[in-house]
Task: inverse folding
């Protein structure tokens, strides 16, 4: 009888121990997952802060380059233009012809410097607005890249925060950069639309495209994705070999 | 009992075989784990051979096993994670302490026929403490990969569950062995479940480690 009691005690005690161990493991898993989520959140916050700083530094650098272009190179080119205009009447017809051609090139250069300077300076967004800046860029891309670019804009657009406009503008520049560098396109379609509450900036080209399953994370695309994340936008990318590429940024406003 | 032993030995053999096949893809601590599993496998075979050769019992094997297992366990744990300096020193101190106790016990205290030896209890104590320290360190700095995909978690779970049940089982065994045969059977069964758990966990840990889910 006593042995039986001992046995029951042993079984009961061991069951309690086993159950305690199981509870311990389950408790550990719960606590660990909680900590993991907290760490993940901290990492995300840190990453966002880092990205924000990076963007601010980039904006500052672009602004400095823009000022440099405008104040130094632009001024210098203007001085050269004045000097050439001064010497032009004193030259022979043949020499005059050469200088006139150079003057034309110089005028184009000054225009390009001004336009580039404007597009690099983030503060100009506040002055001209996102659409005007994109239009200015489109002119430049058409001149430089030989592209035919169609812009279609919805009649009513929401008022966007200045910081978001900077992001959208830089993203549009990144997309155009990719088109000029890789797409080998001849036509580009830019659409800016608003279907409350979604603001959409879409850019499609008729270039060579790529297999988006094989090449989902080029550095340009990673940049776009990160910037979209920062402003809470969605990036929609569609591409296929010889089918062009469509990049759309959608943002709830 | 025989069937249970065959099932256990098959799982142990399978874990060892998997470890040997994937040895090149395993990280250093898990290679030591394969060595530990191999050592246990050989010990179990020697144990059976000794019994089949009509030795009185195979208990002396466990005296020597315990000392070697204490050494292997500390090597595995020190390599498997970057512990804080305090935890590291504590792990080394506990392991040295348990190792010395096991040696002294075998040399001077219990004779070789004693079972379960205090040396096994010392190894159990070391393993439980190391597993708890590791759980604590894991919580302090969680990894990004899901917990159930971390080899370290499975290694630690196996160690913790087996040695805790083993430790308590042997305490009960010491208490009841002389009194009741059925208690011995029940504790053996408990020990068998513990063995199944530990080698299933170790097999999972090896599988995840060779796949590259390193902590």
Result:
């Amino acid at each position: 009888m006593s042995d039986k009691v001992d046995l029951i005690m042993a079984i009961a005690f061991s069951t309690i121990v086993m159950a305690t161990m199981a509870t311990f493991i389950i408790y550990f898993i719960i606590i660990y997952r909680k900590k993991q989520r907290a760490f993940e959140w901290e990492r995300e916050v840190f990453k966002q802060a880092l990205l924000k700083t990076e963007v601010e530094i980039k904006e500052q650098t672009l602004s400095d380059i823009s000022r440099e272009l405008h104040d130094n190179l632009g001024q210098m080119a203007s001085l050269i233009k004045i000097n050439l205009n001064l010497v032009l009447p004193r030259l022979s017809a043949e020499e005059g012809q050469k200088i006139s051609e150079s003057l034309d090139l110089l005028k184009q250069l000054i225009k390009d410097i001004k336009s580039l300077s404007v597009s690099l300076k983030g503060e100009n967004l506040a002055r001209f607005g996102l659409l005007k800046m994109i239009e200015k860029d489109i002119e430049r891309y058409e001149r430089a890249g030989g592209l035919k670019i169609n812009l279609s804009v919805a009649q009513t657009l929401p008022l966007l925060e200045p910081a978001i406009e900077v992001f959208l503008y830089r993203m549009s520049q990144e997309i155009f950069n990719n088109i000029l560098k890789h797409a080998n396109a001849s036509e580009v379609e830019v659409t800016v639309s608003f279907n409350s509450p979604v603001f959409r900036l879409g850019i499609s080209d008729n270039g060579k495209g790529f297999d988006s399953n094989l090449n989902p994370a080029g550095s340009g695309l990673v940049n776009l994705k990160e910037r979209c994340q920062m402003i809470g936008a969605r990036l929609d990318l569609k591409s296929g070999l010889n089918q062009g590429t469509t990049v759309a940024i959608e943002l709830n406003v | 009992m025989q069937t249970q032993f065959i099932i256990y030995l098959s799982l142990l053999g399978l874990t060892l075989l998997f470890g040997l096949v994937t040895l090149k893809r395993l990280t250093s601590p898990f290679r030591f784990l394969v060595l530990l599993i191999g050592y246990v496998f050989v010990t179990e075979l020697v144990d059976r051979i000794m019994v089949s050769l009509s030795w009185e019992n195979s208990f002396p094997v466990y005296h020597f096993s315990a000392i070697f297992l204490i050494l292997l366990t500390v090597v595995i744990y020190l390599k498997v994670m970057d512990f804080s300096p305090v935890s590291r020193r504590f792990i080394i101190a506990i392991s040295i302490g348990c190792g010395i106790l096991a040696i002294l016990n075998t040399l001077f205290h219990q004779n070789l026929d004693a079972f379960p030896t205090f040396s096994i209890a010392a190894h159990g104590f070391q393993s439980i403490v190391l597993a708890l320290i590791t759980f604590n360190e894991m919580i302090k700095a969680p990894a990004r990969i899901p917990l159930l995909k971390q080899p370290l978690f499975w290694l630690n779970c196996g160690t913790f569950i087996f040695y805790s049940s083993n430790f308590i089982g042997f305490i009960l065994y010491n208490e009841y062995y002389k009194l009741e045969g059925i208690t011995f059977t029940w504790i053996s069964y408990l020990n068998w479940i513990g063995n199944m758990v530990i080698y299933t966990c170790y097999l999972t840990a090896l599988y995840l480690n060779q796949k590259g889910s390193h902590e």
